[in-house]
Amino acid sequence: MNMQLLNDILTCYGPSGSEGRVADVIARALEGHVDSLTTDVMGNLIAVKKGKEGGRKIMFSAHMDHIALAVIDADENGFLRVCAVGGVHAQGMTHHHVAFGNGVRGVIGADQDVKGALTVADLYVDIGAESREEALSMVALGDMCVVMPQVTKLGENRLAAPAMDDRIACFVLLEAMLALGQTDNEIVAVFSVQEEVGLRGATTAAYAVHPDMGIAIDVTGVGDVPKAKTKLAVALGKGAAVKIMDRSLICTPSVVAMLETLATEKNIPMQREVLPFGGTDAGAIQRTRGGVPAGAISIPCRYIHSGAETVDLRDVQACIDLTLACMEHSA
Fold it and tell me: Any bridge partners for residue 218, and if so which?
């Protein structure tokens, strides 16, 4: 496992719609290892390894973007007012350090007179400006900030970072592509954009690719923290999660069965995932054109959509192994 490459991917600035820096890191790693490498109109990075004539075309998708806050105005004292880009949980954002794409740094505060639960409309970003004019000379309306990128090791096997969703899946897909040799299948690896705001990149990519099967790689929630409100069976350290369903799709039974069989045959640690919320690129792939058999390989993750999304590297390796096995599998 290339930890320097993982760190580079996790620490890139790349909110929804501004994923170019992430794509550059991935593209440099893939150069010379794939038959073609292109970027489409949406910004999806699409890498292809050709297979044998008569083989299947399999699309894998992992999204590069993560949640952010976008500037909508500044007040007379220079505090930025913001809106959500993706599923931002306001309560968990307060007092975080944030970074803008142009290098400006800030911290998030919240209005003091809020009654009830905080909303994003109650948040502001303090970038050190003392007037509206100064603030808008430092950042423009529409500029996005993300929680300050950093990677923290927890114990022997776990890492926390604000962009695990979904950069850890980009790393899984990248590692599998780098390990892939000759295969019967044509493998199309899509590093997609704008998943957090509606699966937008995968929607257009899947239409263009027109695959015989689609697999999303993404994080999934866990139920292994104290007094978890949602009783999920997935836990850190128990292997790759094979998705059965989430709110974006019910996975194609034959795809689920294939992934479970491969995990068993290859001795890859595996757990079943039923997610009663959320969605992945698999939902977009499944609904493209006349429909595509689709499923998902998920990396268990704690504290999703926070500044401390946490994964277990043993699960990450299991997901790499299962992704590679799926690429190599001949139906």
Answer: 298
183: closest CA among 54, 37, 75? Answer: 54
* Neighbouring C-beta atoms of residue 114, cutoff 10 Å: 13
DSSP letters for 5-49: HHHHHHTS--BTT--HHHHHHHHHHHTTTSSEEEE-TT--EEEEE
- Tell me how far apart the alpha carbons of residues 328 and 52 are, in angstroms, rounded to a whole number: 12
pTM comes to: 0.96
d(CA 16, CA 31): 24
Q: 61, 214 in Cβ contact below 8 A? A: yes
Of residues 318, 225, 218, 316, the one with CA closest to residue 266: 318
Q: Please count the CA atoms within 13 angstroms of the CA of 148 that sit on its side-chain side.
A: 14
For the annotated catalytic residues, the residue numbers are 195
What does pLDDT average to in each consecutive run of 10 residues of the chain (331 residues)? 96 97 98 96 97 92 97 97 96 94 97 89 97 98 96 97 96 98 95 97 98 98 87 94 96 98 97 94 97 98 95 98 94 66
**What's the CA gap between 21 and 13, in Å, rounded?**
7
User: In the structure, how many helices (H) and strands (E) does the chain have?
Assistant: 9, 17
Whether the CB-CB separation of 18 and 67 falls below 8 Å is answered with no
Region(s) of the chain under CATH 2.40.30.40: 68-147
Cis peptide bond N-terminal to 166, omega within 30: yes
Which CATH superfamily groups domain 3-66+163-328? Zn peptidases (3.40.630.10)
